[in-house]
Amino acid sequence: MFPSVNEQMGVIKRGVSEIIPEDDLVRKIEKSLKTKTPLNVKLGCDPSRPDLHLGHSVVLRKLRQFQDLGHRAILIVGDFTGMIGDPSGRNKTRPALSLEETRKNGESYFEQATKILSKEKTKMVYNSEWLAKMQFADVIKLASKYTVARMLERDDFTLRYKAGEPISVHEFLYPLAQAMDSVAINADVELGGTDQKFNLLVGRDIQREFGKEPQVILTMPILVGTDGVEKMSKSLDNYIGLSDSPKEMYGRTLSIPDSLIYDYFLLTTNIEKKDLEEIKQQLERNSVNPRDIKRGLARELVAMYHSHDEAVAAEEEFDRVFVKKDMPDVIPIFYPTADDLKNVTSLTAATGSVSSKTEARKKILEGGVYIDGERITDPFSPVPNKDEFILKVGRRKFHRIIRKNQ
RNA sequence: GGGUAGGUAGCGAAGUGGUUAAACGCAUCAGACUGUAAAUCUGACGGCUCCGGCCUUCGGAGGUUCGAAUCCUUCCCUACCCA
Length: 406
Description:
Blueprint: H1 5-13, E1 18-20, H2 22-35, E2 40-45, H3 54-68, E3 72-77, H4 79-84, H5 99-113, E4 122-126, H6 128-131, H7 136-143, H8 148-152, H9 155-162, H10 169-185, E5 189-193, H11 197-209, E6 216-220, H12 246-254, H13 261-268, H14 273-285, H15 290-305, H16 308-323, E7 333-334, H17 344-350, H18 357-365, E8 369-371, E9 374-375, E10 388-393, E11 397-402
Parallel strand pairs: 2-3, 2-5, 3-4, 5-6, 7-11
Antiparallel strand pairs: 1-6, 8-9, 8-10, 10-11
Helix pairs in contact: 10-11, 12-15, 12-16, 13-15, 15-16, 17-18
The structure holds one RNA strand.
């Protein structure tokens, strides 16, 4: 039923940052084999940001591997913590959510996560189920099990504390709440990014306090975003979304810096170990143009989330539009009103490519607006007297303008 | 509770009565170059505009003044020190 311990460990260890403690994981797997009981593998998800991207995929893919090895994946939606939000208002990215919102986001999270996870084998639970039932006395008791010094061990807290940035008391409760999740579902393994290491470790301590066997924690490296510097995140707009269209996904992938190519292959694709090794060699020796390796990565990703055919199509389209500077094959159509046709500025603004006429005028003066391939330099130049033409704004916004003859 | 230092555009950070829509850096956007890589260069960067201008900003609210981000009052917020 289950693969052997060595086989399992081989799969599990690919790409991981840390397994703490590794021996315990081996032991747990041995026990699972002996008793024919799958391990409970936990992953917490944040319902305040339901748009998943490649960064999330790193850890989700690891979870999928556990599923393929026969283990049980449990997604915990942090609806309770999401509902509390951040009262200090310091972190605006964490607004308080209503119960309905967290539910809705949870559903959406599940839907996207199952692009990677097996739908049937994934269990999703909301942590309000047990956290909402706790009394204040329970919370105090829980909090008493951890010390301030230990909380401050956390790098994030230390840095903020030293920098003189505010840390609210309730932030100390987050790791404890997360730990309670592990207690509630009897987690054997908890996955997370390396930035979650502290929280995951707290889970071990609290499980012990509750007389449970501590979970093994497994951390995955943080995927750097397309800017090559920051962690991939939606708010920094350096992400490749799992729901991005083939075109977008392909283009965004090509925009990552060369230094990230290997990590992306390792962390976000399923390519064979030997191919991975070859890529590493090629990159190190510079024997192949990194661009071509990157194109391969982009095709791979589009094929994973869409299809092989769409990957090929996306590449062709990309070459046409950006290499040959030709037109994309699908261009949104815009039917202008008489007012929009007053001049090119009005038209550009009307298409919504820019936020206002002021913006449109700036782009025209900067030389970023083209009509049928001709650069427009005068904001007040008239709209060509044609029934149909192509308006291009910036590098990638195209509109097919069609006049309706009334 | 007492004291100190602060709160300026997406972020960081100057400015401390009068060309100040507010230096500078980062980020972003557009252009050149290119492999939608890196590096570099140029320009834009509060909002709107009939291009003449108009409107809104310097934690909030009042006030002084011809004139305030800058002075006064009050409130809110943050860090640090003392208790």
